Amino acid sequence: MAAWVWLAALLYGGQAAVLPPPWADIRRNPCAAHPRGWLMLYWPSDGKCYTIYTKGHPCPDTQELSPGKWGGRTIAECKCPPGTAQLPHTTTCHKLFEKGPCRTGEYFAPVEESFNKRGERQGMCVRPQQCADETLLYWPADGRCYYRLSQGPCYSGDVLDIGDDGLANCTCATDGPNHWPTDGGCYAHYTRGPCEKGKLFLPGPKCGCETHLPHYNNATGGCYELDTVGPCPKGHIFSISEVTPLGSHAECRCKSFHARAADGACYRLYTRGPCGQDEMISRGGRCTKVPCARGRLYVPERRRCYRPGTAEPCPLGEVVAFDFEARPALDGLSHNGVCACGNGPCAKKDIESCISHRGKAVYGGACHILHTQGPCPDGAWLVREASGNVKCQCRPGLLPPDCKDITVISINS
Ligand SMILES: *[C@@H]1O[C@H](CO)[C@@H](O)[C@H](O)[C@H]1NC(C)=O
Ligand SMILES: *[C@@H]1O[C@H](CO)[C@@H](O)[C@H](O)[C@H]1NC(C)=O
Q1: Which domain of life does the protein's organism represent (predicted)?
Q2: Which residues pair with 321 in a beta bridge?
Q3: 79 CB-near residues (< 8 Å, 6+ apart)
Q4: Among 44, 93, 122, 231, which is most exposed with the fewest C-beta within 10 angstroms?
């Protein structure tokens, strides 16, 4: 059983986005008077203060001291750190999405419901899903399939392969075909990998560029990874445009939902791009006057402007929302309005499958992987609370002000 302790006389107001956190208040936390006491929680059974989110004593070895909420009060509790969970009736935390305490071929998956009870993070052993074919490997953490020996979800220098336990593993075998002795890393073939611009990491292994490759770009004489910007101007993607018996080759094209403007670059539709103030890029790459009043979004299918949250132009259960695929830092402000799930029932298939996937959550009509940064600020990741709210929370080991404090961003009903 997890150790359960009351923090004396702590009444929790329920505000989620406050800085410093609620336990920093001396009326709520007797430790708040200590130097750096706002990072401490009171443990009644020995009357001492302990630094929050440290593993071990007074908690079991793999658990950490966390602020919990129970019956309107804040309590100090021992919990498995995010990214780990325990089997029912145990206090040992195991990493999620790895073999952990499971049989060979199974992985340890989070049990969603258990987040409701006592804040305990529980896990269970499950079999990986089947991918379309043998060249693909299932990665439990995001529920997707990736090509074997591609970088997939791995950090640069590792490739995805089958581990000894039969599960996909980010690894780098020094005797494998993807190993580059010069820097000790492993790279997928036909990606840039450790090579200079214009060269690709080829079987051998070697860094090179050959004119017969689809990756070859005649204009620059270089080879570039497919479906990246490659040798192209801004807003383009270098991808296969032509498949012929003599071989395929890649070309620079505008990314989808982009249009080429007079300056040769491609810009996301309905952003300002190179246009004047109060103008936006329209289809065909022309600059047109923004047709909407402030605070309204342009829905191209209707050629009209709507207030965000309006149901009218959208399918049942959906409302007009900001274009979540536009990245303001890169694309600039987007006037594009999209239909996204509102609070009602929503018919979209991908959203349905997102809701039913325990490792994912819907935010703003898009599907995000829990326990990754997703739409969160640096230092935070996306988690689901007991209430079903999806929010950005500081990653383990980071505390405000090193990361932005908890911001509730969406209710996932
Ligand atoms: C996964 O890869 C790492 C790094 O190469 C290796 O140390 C580990 O043993 C592998 N795990 C399994 C289960 O094969
Ligand atoms: C490749 O470039 C050369 C010179 O830059 C040019 O003569 C040739 O026609 C180009 N080939 C193709 C297929 O575009």
Answers
A1: Eukaryota
A2: 338
A3: 2, 63, 64, 66, 68, 119, 120, 121
A4: 44
What mean pLDDT is predicted for residues 285-306?
94
Phi, psi of 285 (to 5 degrees): 80, 10
Using a 6 Å cutoff on CB, does residue 325 contact ligand 1? no
Going by alpha carbons, the residue nearest to atom 5 of ligand 1 is: 171
Pocket probe for ligand 1: among 171, 175, 178, 186, the residue whose CB has the most ligand atoms within 8 Å is 171
- Is 171 close to ligand 1, i.e. is its CB under 6 Å away? yes
| For range 135-145, the mean pLDDT | 90
Q: Whose CA is nearest to atom 3 of ligand 1?
A: 171
- Residue 143 scores a pLDDT above 70: yes
Is the distance from the beta carbon of residue 164 to the nearest atom of ligand 1 less than 6 Å?
A: yes
Say what the pLDDT of residue 2 is.
32
Q: What is the pLDDT of residues 251-272, one digit of tens each?
A: 999 999 999 999 999 999 999 9
4 bridge partner residues: 77
> What gap in Å lies between CA 401 and CA 250, rounded to an integer?
46
